[in-house]
Write a structure and sequence with these properties.
The complex is a heterodimer of chains A (about 475) and B (about 325). Chain A is mainly alpha-helical and about 475 residues long. Chain A has one domain. In chain A, strand 1 and strand 2 form a beta hairpin. In chain A, helix 1 packs across helix 12 and helix 10 packs antiparallel against helix 11. Chain A is globular. In chain B, about 75% of the residues lie in helices and about 5% in strands. A two-stranded antiparallel sheet of chain B has the order 1-2. A two-stranded antiparallel ribbon of chain B has the order 3-4. The radius of gyration of chain B is 20 Å and the shape is globular. With about 325 residues, chain B is mainly alpha-helical. In chain B, helix 1 runs antiparallel to helix 3, helix 1 crosses helix 11 and helix 5 packs antiparallel against helix 6. Chain B is built from 13 helices and 4 strands. The longest helix of chain B has about 30 residues. Classes of the chains: A mainly alpha (about 475), B mainly alpha (about 325). At the A-B interface, helix 2, helix 3 and helix 13 of A face helix 3, helix 4, helix 5, strand 2 and helix 13 of B. Chain A: It holds the Pfam family Cyt_bd_oxida_I. Chain A: It is a multi-pass membrane protein. Chain A: One of its GO terms (cellular component) is cytochrome complex. Chain A: Belongs to the cytochrome ubiquinol oxidase subunit 1 family. Chain A: One of its GO terms (molecular function) is oxidoreductase activity, acting on diphenols and related substances as donors, oxygen as acceptor.
């Protein structure tokens, strides 16, 4: 174990946990804004029930995202101080803008969104909900600008002291891979949320068939899936072409493409990459399909791994397989979306037990796909922190091994305990169906001739 | 020349962000430190609900402090973080426990006491670690070739333990006076009583830290006991005593808000004291503000937005505080 390996393990571990929560809370914040808007627009109590139900789940997920995010913002310095010193002048201002434009916005309005409806009135409460949703999207924009710059650096020069000096901020922020990465990630967040909402609603419907509130949320989630799953596959394809242009070694690793194939690049469905001997074992291939997807021609060529020095190749096995997991899940999501569309047409969306079970089974698929996609892109960047310019082996802090070992053990223990408990609470909250709205005086047909039937709405009681 | 000015403006902004963090998260960490003093379930609920809508915004200033340092003084960030590795990691782990406790404790009956303890322990360890980190910074960090050159326990000393205790005690005072301002009934009266010894202890710690700080470095000594800054050396203690008088007057029945704002005064003055010692260093004894600053193109880009955004942030943060103004209604909360 070297300091570099330990620093990488720690970063990979903490960021893997962290990325799960934003992937969920970006989508959920937008969903809450839609629900709140739909409630104000239609005064249909089902939307308010859903808002109050998912609001609490959002609060728990957001809390976990905040605390794991603070760790990330300090870890650049604690474990990657050389990287921080050199890349800080470029990356730091973007991260500062993330704090100023996104984190404060979310945090400032979160309290009002969660606790303030009765204090500020519907209009301002809607504004607060919208601001929280906007904050999550702005946050994603900045952090993906940072991440994309590390993959496709642009708009800088290098000073004598080794620091990257910003020359053109427009080029830095809108670096070549940024638009693709941003779209891919935001769509992933929306897909993840749609799958979770759909899975929870399907579970509730399996337990309480015909529950009107769960039917509404399942319907919304399945529409979202129909909309986003095909879009995401298209966006992923475009992102892949962009990566081929700027990071060909990564694409070659994703495809397991060690040597050039003269007639055309096959698509490898299954194989065991053997990086030491620079070949694929047990390959199951579809001839020419790789060329067709990546170059949109029958015999187009892409650079092979053999054209890069071994020390500049990413770890092939990890990238090859994580990419396949992501793609397979993407197509499974598309399949579920089409199945849902078919069932809706046949009037069986809420009652087909196999469809509902499939929704439950794919409920966590978004998280797995996000993690797999993240591993593909980040491990694929290796052996660089700033692609082609700053090696990972030259980026870590001058720290003693025991310091890194102890902190890694600390993070692993605390994360599994704390976020394990959080996941348990989230699952328990989602298991119970949202409260059914009771019609009250204000919202229902006026029959009671002025006699108060009690509180207008009952939802949002203690969950246990 | 431009670079010189920009880096000093930025040093001011970072100092401001850290000060805002210390006074805002200071009181809500303090509420956590005082959590065991609640006698009933309901007292714990209102104590937590007095900060639940705002703690996240308060903690964001910590991210701005760290993120801002990374953005405009990357070299200082790269040197300080490995040097203060242990207290920083401790603080991060503690903040995890404390942050999730706000939601978790409402989600379970069986484990509620555990998350109550996490809220208390996380707040205490976070405050103590921040204090130790401060002490570690004040006593100086060894830098060679743009990197930290010491070991991972160099920060630990009687002085950093003293500053750790000082900050944790000060946070508890902030928490107690905040609760005096925000609550009513039994817990309010108890906090009023607790705030007196806490105020006294904070004053003693403030005195001890001030006494030992000039001994950490020749430069501090010069700064405090000679030349033009002697005016400050006299003014700061006088103002501290004024705040102490305000605190006592408030706690003896002179209004529920006065103690909180007097306690904030302690922190502002202590902070100014550190500023007097440090200037123009950012990482004593070897890195100045100018040396650690990022290139002008970074400083200018970040400054444009910051100057526009900070007033906006302060406005809506103030609005959020205004929405939740007044004494806490025990029946409120969304749980």
């Amino acid at each position: 174990m070297t300091a570099e390996v330990l620093a990488r393990l720690q970063f990979a571990f903490t960021v893997s946990f962290h990325i799960i929560f934003p992937a969920f809370s970006i989508g959920l914040a937008s969903y809450l804004a839609v629900l709140n808007g739909a409630w104000l627009w239609t005064r249909d109590g089902r939307y308010l029930s859903l808002f109050n139900f998912w609001k609490k789940i959002f609060a728990v997920a957001f809390g976990m995202g905040v605390v794991s995010g603070i760790v990330m913002s300090y870890q650049f310095g604690t474990n990657w101080s050389v990287f921080s010193d050199k890349a800080g002048p470029v990356i730091g201002p973007m991260m500062a803008y993330e704090v100023l434009t996104a984190f404060f916005l979310e945090a400032g309005f979160l309290g009002i969104m969660l606790f303030g409806r009765s204090r500020v009135g519907d209009g301002l409460h809607m504004l607060a909900t919208g601001m929280v949703a906007l904050g999550t999207l702005i946050s994603a924009t900045w952090i993906l600008a940072v991440n994309s710059w590390m993959h496709t650096p642009a708009g800088f020069s290098i000073a004598e002291n080794g620091q990257f000096v910003p020359e053109d901020w427009w080029q830095i922020v809108f670096n070549p891979s940024f638009p693709y990465r941003l779209v891919h990630m935001v769509l992933a967040a929306y897909l993840t949320t749609a799958l979770v909402v759909g899975g929870a609603s399907a579970f509730q419907l399996l337990r309480a068939p015909g529950h009107t509130v769960s039917k509404r949320s399942l319907s919304m989630a399945m529409w979202m899936l129909v909309l986003v799953a095909p879009l995401q596959i298209f966006a992923g394809d475009q992102h892949g072409l962009n990566t081929l242009e700027h990071q060909p070694a990564k694409i070659a690793a994703m495809e397991g493409h060690f040597e050039r194939h003269e007639g055309g690049v096959p698509l490898v469905l299954f194989a065991i990459p053997d990086q030491q001997n620079q070949k694929l074992d047990y390959a199951l291939e579809v001839p020419h399909l790789g060329s067709l997807i990546l170059t949109h021609s029958w015999d187009g060529q892409i650079p092979a791994l053999s054209e890069f020095p071994v020390e500049d190749q990413p770890p092939v096995w990890i990238v090859f397989w994580s990419f396949r997991v992501m793609v397979a899940l993407g197509f499974a999501m598309l399949g579920l979306a089409l199945w849902g569309l078919w069932a809706r047409w046949r009037g069986r969306l809420y009652s087909d037990p196999w469809l509902l079970r499939a929704c439950v089974a794919l409920g966590p698929a978004g998280f797995v796909a996000v993690l797999a996609g993240w591993i593909t892109t980040e491990v694929g960047r290796q052996p660089w922190t700033v692609y082609g310019l700053l090696r990972t082996s030259e980026s870590h802090s001058p720290l003693d091994l025991p310091a890194l070992t102890t902190s890694l053990i600390g993070f692993v223990t605390v994360y599994f305990f704390v976020f394990g408990a959080g996941t348990f609470y989230l699952l328990r909250m989602m298991r119970k169906a949202p409260d059914t709205p009771r019609l009250g005086l204000r919202d229902g047909p006026i029959r009671t001739a002025g006699i108060m039937p009690g509180p207008t709405m009952t939802s949002g009681e203690r969950s246990d | 020349m431009l670079g010189l000015e920009l880096s000093f403006i930025w040093a001011g902004i970072i100092a401001f962000a850290v000060l805002v963090y210390v006074i805002l998260d200071g009181f809500d960490l303090g509420v956590g430190i005082l959590f065991p003093l609640a006698k009933t379930e309901q007292e714990r609920d209102v104590m937590m609900n007095s900060v639940a809508p705002i703690w996240d915004g308060n903690e964001t200033w910590l991210v701005l402090g760290g993120g801002g340092l990374f953005a405009v003084f990357p070299l200082a960030y790269a040197v300080v973080m490995p040097a203060l590795y242990v207290p920083i990691i401790l603080m991060l782990l503690a903040l995890i426990f404390r942050g999730v406790a706000f939601e978790y404790r409402w989600r379970t009956k069986r484990w509620k006491r555990l998350w109550d303890f996490a809220f208390f322990g996380g707040s205490l360890v976070a405050g103590f670690s921040q204090g130790m980190a401060l002490g570690g910074l004040v006593q100086g960090i060894e830098v060679v070739d743009r990197g930290y050159a010491g070991g991972w326990w160099d920060w630990l000393s009687p002085f950093s333990l003293l500053t750790g205790l000082a900050v944790a005690t000060g946070y508890a005072l902030l928490g107690a006076t905040w609760l005096v301002m925000k609550l009513e009934g039994g817990v309010h009266d108890r906090m009023r009583r607790v705030a007196q010894p806490l105020g006294l202890a904070t004053l003693v710690f403030l005195g001890l830290v001030s006494l030992f700080t000039p001994l950490q470095d020749e430069v501090y000594f010069q700064r405090w006991f000679s030349g033009g800054s002697l005016v400050f050396s006299v003014a700061v203690p006088v103002l501290v005593l004024l705040c102490a008088a305000g605190l006592w007057k408030g706690l003896r029945g002179g209004g529920d808000r006065l103690p909180f704002f007097s306690a904030l005064g302690f922190f502002v003055l202590g902070f100014i004291g550190i500023g007097i010692s440090f200037y123009p260093m950012i990482v004593p004894p070897s890195l100045t503000i100018v040396e650690a600053a990022a290139p002008d193109s970074s400083l200018a880009f970040a400054l444009v937005g910051t100057v526009i955004l900070i007033p906006i942030i302060l406005t809506y943060t103030a609005y959020a505080y205004w929405v939740f103004r007044g004494k806490i209604d025990p029946s409120e909360g969304y749980h």
